[in-house]
Design goal:
Blueprint (H helix, E strand, L loop, with lengths): L6 H28 L1 H11 L18 H22 L4 H25 L6 H20 L10 H31 L1
Helix pairs in contact: 1-2, 1-3, 1-5, 3-4, 4-5, 4-6, 5-6
Length: about 180
Amino acid sequence: MFDSYPTIFIVATVMWVIHGFILDIVVIGVLPFLSVVASDAQRADKFPWALGGYTNYPTVPNLAPTHRRFIAENAAYAVMRIAPIFFITNQAVLCIAVLSYFIEGVTIAWEINAHSAPANSMLPQTLMGVFCTIVTYAATSNPGDFIENSDPDVLLAMQVLCGLTWACWVVGAAATARKSKTS
């Protein structure tokens, strides 16, 4: 199956399996049903917003309505991030994956800037930029014309979304730096 894939598309496929399936489905969606302790530890470490809030916000218990909403949100992200595994040469599907990284990047930057999300929120903020860069680079470089019907407008949309995702990173990093100076 992967014999005909250019290396960057193999890298992207591995990324989609890890991020779209293992993280978005298994860690976020299944783990809460298996272990409250493990789920709460993952939320605190990787997704602090899934605990319900930050300073002066009550913690949301495992599988409470707010947590279930977070699980559903990430299931939707998973669909957008797993789809390219099956439609890897469909540029529009790749663009939707990049759009998902941008949307999550906006949300994380907003949480950091407006709601005092903790400094470890920069890890997923950074990952959104890295992930969208991998997909955008794959589509832009398109080794061996792997994507046969490349549309320059869709490619431009991906490139703009990738740039905007990194702009979200700058907003998150600036807010994190500003908070660390005042703490």
